[in-house]
Amino acid sequence: MAKKELILLALNPAPILDLMERTLRAGGYEVAVANDRSGLDKSVQEAIPILMIIGEKFADQDGLSVASELLLRFPTLPIILYADHDTTGLAKSALKRGLSGYLYPPLKMQDIVDEVQKSLVRARHLGDWLRHEVRRTTSSLVEQAEISEAERGKLEAIIANIQDGVIVMDDRQKILFVNRSIRDIFGLDGRELAGKSLADVIQNVDLKAMMIRSSEGPLKYHEINFDDGRVFNAQYTPIPKIGAAVTMQDISYLKELDRLKSDFIHTVSHDLRSPLTSILGYTELIERTGPLNQNQTEFLHRLQGSIQHITALVNDLLDLGRLEAGFDTRREVVQLASILKYSLDMFDSQVRKKNIKLVNDIGPDLIPIRANPIRIRQMMDNLIGNAIKYTPDEGLVSVNMFMQDNQIILKVQDTGPGIPPEEQSHVFEKFYRATNAPDGVEGSGLGLAIVKSIVDSHQGRVWVESNMGHGSTFIVILPTQE
Ligand code: ATP
Ligand code: MG
User: Fold this and answer.
1) Considering every ligand atom, which ligand is closest to the CA of 443?
2) Which of 240, 408, 421, 461 is most buried, judged by most C-beta within 10 A?
3) CA of 448 to the centre of ligand 2 (A)
4) How far, in Å, is the centroid of ligand 1 from the Cα of 304?
5) Where exactly does CATH 3.40.50.2300 map onto the chain?
6) Which CATH class is domain 124-250?
7) pLDDT (tens digit per residue) in 364-391
């Protein structure tokens, strides 16, 4: 015989208790009666009733409060309140506290049966809904887990097979993963690499330099060169909670194109120089061959100005070509302070014309360095020339040079228009002119490319710090030891 469902009665002994007991038994339920609070708690816990009827007063306690406490622990247990008298206030509180029914005298057997069944039907619906929700949530969790497992597999396959090299490492630079391209690039075969230190496994000077630079944060451009001529661009990206990733792309073909372009420019510049010199020579001769009228003289001078302009451009291009090809090997012991003073003197007339205040502060303890004095002068001329050229009349240009940690620091600061942040990394490229360069200020965009090549060939660093509208500071660091 199937086990009967249990209904628990928490009512003080009274005729109504007998009536309920009889009615419910007749309705096919098993009935248990709790006499006091501890008996009630025990029965709810152990016998697991399907419903409970509690009196408004039960064993000297407030039935509603006892019911509320029980509902906190057994939220799905249907509880009916039996009130001594019907009051709307009590009925409302019962509903508010989550009880499922309400009975009051005079009571007929049918009233009890109806209220119990109504509460049980509601409880069953609630139970069904709960089970359904739990099933739905768990199945969507399982589904999600399956999807993310599949996604992970896909992602792994993509990373393993893409052309870019990928290294993932932990925060102590121990390898977590390398893809096939990295193995090909560094010739690592099928060696087990996981857990090994990156520096031990891959002995490449540029990669090591990159890992040292990486303490500054993410890196977008870092060239990695190989003895066989291959060149890669590498990025360093910190990954929160994992460590970091290094990605690399082969840019050898771009480098080759760049070299061909530079060779071409160099050859053309070289071939242009002789005819330009001869054109300039002849324009000067024309003046000596006989008297010229005023117009002829003026046109001739304009012609000479333009030829000088092209000649300067051609010379800049030739200089760059030589610097980039690594031909600048002349080194002698030079005093940077005296070169800087010559350079500053040269700008005297320009400074006066624009009424610019040019101040300088040259440290007394500068030690001589091994350098090419002509190139150093060219570098200073370009930086100071730019500062004066881009600073409006009445502005201020200050040039400082001092020693710091065995390095010489040169700072050229101006009160010009500044350089937009997104363009600051481009101004050192050939022919690049900032979009905010003032109208009428001429230039070909080669000066800073020459500066960078010169500083690079002296193992130094150059960069710009600039505040739009407030001015720019170009900073050069030159090591005192080669
Ligand atoms: P060139 O020096 O070849 O005659 P240029 O001065 O235009 O021409 P760069 O010296 O290479 O070329 O400078 C590149 C660009 O950087 C300039 O066109 C200008 O827009 C910007 N720039 C350089 N120096 C300054 C500065 N001190 N203040 C503001 N902008 C500057
Ligand atoms: Mg310039």
Assistant:
1) 1
2) 408
3) 6
4) 24
5) 6-107
6) alpha beta
7) 989 999 999 999 999 999 999 999 999 9
